[in-house]
Predict the structure.
Amino acid sequence: MKTARFHAAVAAVVLLASAPAVWAAPANADAPVTEAELARHIQVLASDAFEGRAPGTEGEDRTIAYVVGEWAKAGLEAVPGSATPWLQPVPFVESQAVGGSARFKVNGRDFAMDKDGIILTGRDASVSMTDVPAIFVGYGIDGAGKVNADVKGKVAIMLFDSAPFGDKLPRYRERRQMLADAGASAVLVIATDALPWAELRENVGGKTVRLADAAPGAPVSGFLSIAGADALLAKAGLGGAAAREAAKSPDYRGAVLPVTADFTAKTNIRSFASNNIVAKLPGAKPDGKAVLFLGHWDHLGICGKEGDADRICNGAVDNASGIAVLIEVAKRLGSGTRPDRDIYFMATTAEEKGLLGAHYFADHPAVPLGDITVALNIDTIAISPRGTPVATIGRGKPAYDAVVRDVATKLGRRLDDDGEADAFIQRQDGWALGAKGVTSLMVGGSFSDMKLLEDFLGSDYHTAADNFSDKIPLGGAAEDADLHVALGRAFADTKRWPGK
Ligand SMILES: [Zn+2]
């Protein structure tokens, strides 16, 4: 606080003495973001009235009203030309398996699969198939990353682990989708020890959400337990161990099994809409390039079981803290010297369902992606105290890294270059934009001290305990907010940053 008053006093004196000096150092005009300002927003967004901010709920309506209200006060505007001002509607489909059965025949004779050996979900409300021929496909892909066998009309039995013959090959979800795209009637993934069966059963029985315009999966998807798969493969004359061994070859083409399957599956399917909140701060001298700030507004909603004392996952740190920072950054940039370039602010939906709001924006950009010179994502920012070094997820482009280093250093921050934070790159919204070629950075102290981060991830994270309280460390978040104000100014400055 003392430093702030000192700066303000200096600015006032300088203003009297020589106005141009103030223009030469506009960043000094930004009042530091305070813990109290952030706390006020977090307290509202993480209050029980917001019901944990699940997409498609009343909690979403309240979140939108609050964020739009604050951004409008900050001087942001709706993106011109948007059919629904301030909002990008995102259509979703939610499914929940409510029952299913599988019957296998090996060489025409009934094979008794252990009832707990298989988990099924249907794509549509009701699925019924008989005599579907089976093929074991190993990893489902060859060394070139292409589907390795003819799976059309078949049940493809696939290994979960990543293929050992290449490190850039798709993971199991993508491989499962590739098999569906290739016409598989069913895809069954063989679980591993890394995928605890009890957890899998619970997840599959729960609700899953996908973008309404995502490619549909196979009519039936599911998992086989290790024991269930081994028993079936052994009966089919292809031992589980031998099958796994053969699949290690990048030229493996699968093994047609003397197995057929009958499936039924019933699924509750519901369509609903949610929204990304998108706003614009028009630049003073726009040059066609733009800065995008983003952070996810959603959280897990009502997550506890009936009868639990606290059933609401309020998501105070994850990610009311990030939205609080986005509000205060917007206020500084909206009221101080107006930046040259347009600056966009986006609060995304359904990050917790797999970065879905960010993926939707990347596929249907409200701003041309090629115009975005940098995207700065803010997630789970209230972890560290003041003085924590600055880590950056998404480093590696020297010109960008130099701006971050320069801006952080000028604010008296130390840099953390050990690269530990990179482990989280796929777990944040910036990944969805990065996949489309937008330089996406996540900058700040939260991902610098791994001990503090692991402590949070191992305790309140994604539980009903992620509540607002005065125990949440907001010093680091306030400092990181100042850092983002300065980063916004630097990347939006046409003389300082070429916009690539
Ligand atoms: Zn989360």
User: Anything to note?
Assistant: The chain has two domains: 26-91+271-491, 94-269. The CA atoms of residues 30 and 332 lie 6 Å apart.
